[in-house]
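W.,

You were right to be curious about this one. When I first looked at the sequence I had no strong expectations either way, so I just let the prediction run and decided to look at it fresh. Below is the sequence, 250 residues in total, followed by the output.
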Amino acid sequence: MEQNKVYAQERERILNIAPEQYVKRSLAEELIKKSAYWYSHRSQHPVHAPNHFKHIHDPMGKAYALINALRTEGEEISTPTRSDWKINFGGNTFLISKAVLRCQSTLLTFLDNAEVGEILKLDELKHKLKMDVRKSVANYSGQEYEGYYSSFDGNHLIFGSQSISTEDFANVILSKVNVHRLFKSNQSSSSVTTILAAPSLSKSSNKKTLRPQSSVVLPSQTTCPYCSVKVKTTNLQSHTTGKCPKKPSL
């Protein structure tokens, strides 16, 4: 019962990232402050660019505000108050709200699967969140790129001399929840991090009782989503961005 409470609490936290798919301006600003960089800096390494948050905008919110201002007294507005935070980098646009909502969806799917015992390691979850961020880029005409944004190096989406760190973005999202408590460090020689499986009901008696279930240790290898080759889990990211023959073109 205690574990069911934990899952319920985490689901509430995940939903509160963007209640009813509404991304607050404060969250959009925090994400840009912590993930935006001057990528081509004279110091020869990326440097944080927190003031980029001043350039975020929400065309959908502006449209709603205009409709609200023009409405007659007592008139109800059926237009949803969805947010669509964006930040332009030259001819490309990073879709902040889209990235947040995709990360939220990934976390909810992760929790659904965990509750039925389908285990996902913490580093794999984080990799999925980073890929959600990499998907959320539009071109000069406002159309999202198919697949993943191709101008990418390490953890950075590169927009000329500027960039967005998928690592930092994912870390901010994870800081809003506490899914880490669903994981524990295995004390065996491999010390693999695993998630506790949801409790199952015993059918050995007429009375329903909870049967304790031990943590499940995953093998040290995983399958590349592009070429299906078995690689070490810790090397998955470097493989998919480097050696994989079927990786998305950069």
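Here's what jumped out at me. The CA atoms of residues 204 and 211 lie 10 Å apart. And, maybe more interesting for your project: DSSP finds seven helices and 14 strands in the chain.

Coffee later to discuss?

I.
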